[in-house]
């Protein structure tokens, strides 16, 4: 184990740090095991057209059925996974699983129904892996028989900034496949207009910090409107995250924000319940 910890091994004398490092290694070991034993599952959160209230698609969000700790949300394990190539394997699992589940739902839909899309989150490290990500996407589309525009890749600004040059090349290649590309969590970190201009995103997702709890009379509502308009001025569609109240949805609709996602419409849904959820949206 000393070898695994490398040169830092001597620096770990403080008990808290040691406990943290051990917990970290525990999670890593657990994640490897989880991949082998199929302990992950995807929940799907609807993305709704604010003007028509119709279903536009779903975002796939990972959950871990930990053998001892129960159902874990991504905040408790994705950051650890992101420190190693484990995240690349997890992302690849998500890609494959979401495409295979989506193609199953498509088969169950009637001909007239518009096919919902599925959005998946790709981490900085997978993006930096470059060519491999493109091959993974190509292979998965082929296996599942899905048309590329039903798949959407979400990337955060911080992931792009971490490896700007590779990122731009890879994102252009993703677009070239016909797959959708959304900028996730806009406004959460260092938001760059330059990035919006130079990367071929189809849409920008506004971080929920700007949305949840927003009222027309709040000073923040002008900022929210400006962000929506910024997206539109760059020809991007806009999706607002974290809509929890009807007033937030109304406000965003009045700003001509196209899509919304949040607990008001639905929490993330287990895949076995997607069929009955979709029945609410007759075409
Ligand atoms: P995200 O991509 O921004 O996903 C949206 C998060 O906001 C989800 O949390 C969702 O459950 C939560 N959310 C949705 N609507 C509301 C709302 O109205 N109010 C509030 N308070 N929260 C809302 P979740 O599922 O815990 O995921 C957290 C983050 O973990 C995601 O943020 C994403 O960055 C990451 N993540 C999730 N699944 C994956 C994955 O498969 N791969 C990777 N690399 N990252 C993932
Ligand atoms: Mg996302
Ligand atoms: Mg987001
Ligand atoms: Mg987020």
Automatic annotation (TrEMBL):
<protein>
    <submittedName>
        <fullName>Diguanylate cyclase/phosphodiesterase with PAS/PAC sensor(S)</fullName>
    </submittedName>
</protein>
<feature type="domain" description="EAL">
    <location>
        <begin position="24"/>
        <end position="282"/>
    </location>
</feature>
């Amino acid at each position: 184990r000393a070898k695994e910890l490398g040169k830092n091994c001597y620096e770990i004398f403080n008990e808290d740090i040691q406990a943290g490092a051990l917990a970290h290694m525990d999670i890593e070991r657990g994640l490897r095991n989880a991949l082998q034993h199929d302990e992950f599952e995807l929940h799907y959160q609807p993305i709704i057209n604010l003007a028509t209230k119709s279903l536009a698609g779903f975002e796939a969000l990972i959950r871990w059925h930990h053998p001892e700790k129960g159902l874990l949300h991504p905040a408790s394990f994705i950051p650890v996974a992101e420190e190693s190539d484990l995240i690349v394997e997890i992302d690849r699992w998500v890609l494959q699983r979401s495409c295979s589940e989506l193609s199953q739902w498509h088969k169950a839909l009637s001909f007239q129904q518009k096919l919902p899309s599925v959005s998946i989150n790709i981490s900085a490290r997978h993006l930096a892996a470059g060519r491999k990500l493109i091959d993974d996407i190509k292979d998965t589309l082929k296996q599942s028989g899905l048309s590329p525009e039903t798949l959407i890749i979400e990337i955060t600004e911080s992931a792009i900034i971490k490896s700007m040059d590779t990122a731009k090349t890879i994102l252009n290649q993703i677009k070239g496949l016909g797959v959708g590309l959304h900028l996730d969590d806009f406004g959460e970190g260092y938001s760059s207009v330059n990035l919006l201009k130079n990367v071929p995103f189809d849409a920008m997702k506004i971080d929920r910090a700007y949305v949840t709890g927003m009222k027309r009379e709040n000073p923040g509502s002008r900022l929210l409107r400006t962000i929506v308009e910024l997206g539109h001025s760059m020809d991007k569609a806009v999706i607002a995250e974290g809509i929890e109240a009807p007033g937030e949805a109304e406000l965003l609709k009045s700003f001509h924000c196209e899509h919304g996602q949040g607990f008001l419409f639905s929490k993330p849904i287990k895949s076995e319940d997607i069929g009955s959820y979709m029945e609410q949206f007759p075409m």
